[in-house]
Amino acid sequence: MTNFLAVERALRTAAPYDLLPAARAALAEHYGAVHVDLLLADYSCKVLQSVEGDPADARPVPIRGSAQGRAFDSRERVQMTGYEDSVDLHVPVTAHGDRLGILVVRLPVPPTGEKIAPHVVDEIIALADIVGHEILVADRDTDVYLQARRDGRLTLAAEVQWQLLPGRACARAEYEIGAQLEPAYAIYGDNFDWAETETTLTLGVTNGMGEGIQASLLTSLAVNALRNARRAGIGIADQAALADQALFAQYRGEEYVATLLLSFDLDTGRVEVVDGGSPQLWRHRDRTVEHIPFEAQLPLGMFEETDYVTQEFQVEPGDRLVFVSDGVFAALSAKGEAFGEKMLARAIQAARLLPAAAVPRAILHDLSAYLDPEPGPDVDDDALVLCLDWFGRATRP
Questions:
Q1: How many CB atoms lie within 10 A of CB 52?
Q2: What is the C-alpha to C-alpha distance for residues 27 and 30, in angstroms, rounded to an integer?
Q3: Tell me: the pLDDT tens digits for 157-192?
Q4: Rounded-to-integer distance, Cα 284 and Cα 272, Å
């Protein structure tokens, strides 16, 4: 534990841009590490890239098919790669359930030939979590880690959208969330947001009309208006009404935002919903995948002083909720055929064994393969997938 505390102190006192050198020096001194690297997932979650050196010269590691990628996607907290005289520990770097990347620590094999001591592995896992929290703090003062996430240049609209997000995943005893936007480097109108308290989870999925920077600015105003109302302590119907007023005051109904807004009671599983537009909710319960429809209300900003009312439904432990934008269910293939309910239900079913954080990427991969099997992984239009696994307050698998 003395070694752990020494490395923790080194990480917490390191300059914001200097986390990897600090980790490398401290792990070498206190654990005998012969190699340390910090790899962060890029915006599309297709590759992992080192924070060291010039991002333009980075050699990305593919998430699919690599030991580092298996560690990133696995439910386990560590994957090991053995060599003749050393072992690589590939440990997910996390912050509140959001996997940011992988900490790679190479340790020499003990002279006796025994395995790495379990307490050493546990301490390095805990140190990877500290690295994750320190990255979130450091992002306020340096671009090093944001640059390392880029496998290409973001459009200005995408820059606005990614900076607006709360993260890509979140985990709590009652639920786990995972979400993804595509095309990651050119997204403009789709967005998601969440906020938790001791007893509630508020979740929003938005789809601003239009393209490019205009769509991202529209969505940014909508999300911040919803946050402003939420932080005033009012319910989701009034949050929607106040955001509606803010958007109408700015755009006079010429531009608007489709929104699905939900408030979960963590004690009971009761959910209040305001459905203001196109995002859809699908539920995977037991072996059944079905679309959960709500009474549609007007999108935010379409008309002046719209009144919004809540609807209710119940989530049960074991439920998986999947939220999708129209860029998923209404996307057209080269033959003009929509992805539609049948293909979406099949994609949700196929991802049933994956953790929530990996589900959006799996569904988007199926979508891109359906739309255009030849070029591969990217979609042309905005597409959002958010997965929420509900465990409930009293029961968790």
A1: 16
A2: 5
A3: 999 999 999 999 999 999 999 999 999 999 999 999
A4: 19
Question: Tokens 């008309």 appear where?
Answer: 303
DSSP at 155: P
Q: Which position has the token pair 């990897």?
A: 20
Region of residue 350 (phi > 0: left; psi between -120 and 50: alpha; otherwise: beta) = alpha
Query: Of all helices (H) and strands (E), which one includes residue 79?
Result: strand 79-82
88, 67 contact by CB (below 8 A): yes
Distance CA 41, CA 355 (A): 17
- Whether residue 387 is predicted with pLDDT greater than 90 in this model: the reply is yes
Three-point CA angle 251, 280, 74, nearest 5°: 115
Q: Which residue has the tokens 């593919």?
A: 62
Following DSSP, what letter does each residue of 290-344 receive, concatenated?
EE------PPBTSSTT-----EEEE--TT-EEEEE-HHHHT-B-TTS-B-HHHHH
Q: Under 8 Å CB-to-CB from 215, ≥6 apart: which residues?
A: 157, 188, 189, 208, 209, 382
- Is the confidence at residue 396, as pLDDT, over 70? no
Cα–Cα distance between 178 and 383 in angstroms, integer? 14
C-alpha 266/C-alpha 25 separation (Å) is 43
Structure tokens that stand for 98 in this block: 């959001």
**Number of C-beta neighbours around residue 28 at 10 A:** 14
d(CA 282, CA 325): 11
Model confidence pLDDT, tens digit, residues 322-356: 999 999 999 988 888 889 999 999 999 999 999 99
Residue spans of alpha helices (H) in the chain: 2-13, 19-31, 67-73, 118-138, 144-148, 156-164, 212-230, 236-251, 326-329, 340-350, 359-371
Within 8 A by CB and 6+ apart from 368, the residues are 182, 376, 377, 378, 379
Residue 112 has pLDDT above 80, yes or no: no
Q: Which two tokens stand for residue 349?
A: 């079913």
What is the pLDDT confidence band of residue 378, given thresholds at 50, 70 and 90?
Answer: low
